[in-house]
Model the fold of this input.
Amino acid sequence: MSLASPPPAGKVPVTIVTGFLGAGKTTLIRHVLEAAKGRRLALIVNEFGDVGVDGQILKACGIESCPEDAIVELANGCLCCTVADDFVPAIEALLAHPRRPEHIIVETSGLALPKPLVKAFDWPDVRAKLTVDGVIAVVDAAAVAEGRFADDPEAVLAQREADAAVDHDNPLEEVYEDQLLCADLIVLNKTDLLDAGALARLTGEIAGTVPRAVKMVATAEGRIDPAVLLGLTAAAEDDLANRPSHHDAEPDHDHDDFDSFVVEVAPTTDPAALVARLADVAATFDVLRIKGFVEVTGKPMRLLVQGVGPRFRHHFDQPWPAGARRGALVVIGEKGMDRAAIEKAIAA
Done:
């Protein structure tokens, strides 16, 4: 099966992979790169936070179809806000690469709204060279099934009765829904953590949210055939009217609802205890995401730590680069996080 159909007018196709914090975008992209069968791919990774964890993970893969110099890291947190400054130069550099990519994958940050980025492909300089082959929304099925982004109707009613001026908008849910509403394909990831009934309910809820027919596929650990993701030929830049957004009426958008900071982490002798402490910190302070690398005393490998809420995973991923044994974690949460208390709790 071909990985992609020819793009219109010889343009280089671009797949935008969106999805909330910790949904599994990087893992899914890694599987796509590993199964690309020699197809020349390039990757733009956009992150929210100063430590490029996802980019480092992908650069460590050593995959022939996407060499390290074909991976561009942008750490501005919102690629669509800096199209002229960041996105267009990154695209031009990739297209000038000696091994010109046949397909470009863009991994947005977990807090990004995809529609403004799709709009950027309507710019004359961009439209002449690229087309949006498809927008892929990756969903943490286990988290959403737990109601992580759902408002409590009874609580909202009680708030309205107490104060009619209360703003009930949930910025987390808006970001999540905007990602679904822009998608050409929705990947329900981490379905191995759900039973059949919960998966069926979630599928029904998402189908009720998206106003058009969008295919959904279920997976675990992001394992999916690249042919399912690449070659959708959606030309999404020509289909913006069918991709509604909570922010369509806004001239600009920002991430004022969210914040991030980096915590330096001292070497540890007990990774399990550290991860348990991080899970407790996430639960206590309602942190959305913690991810980064930790030095384990006496080990040449760096420890990759990733948490979504209080759910954490960790493993040794590769040796530390020479002279770069620096433990650092990116903490992402809603505006107003108690940074000092979080830093103190992590260092305890």
In short: The domain at 258-347 is CATH 3.30.1220.10 (Hypothetical Protein Yjia; Chain: A;domain 2). The chain has a mean pLDDT of 79. Residues 17 and 136 are 5 Å apart (CA to CA). The two ends are 53 Å apart (CA to CA).
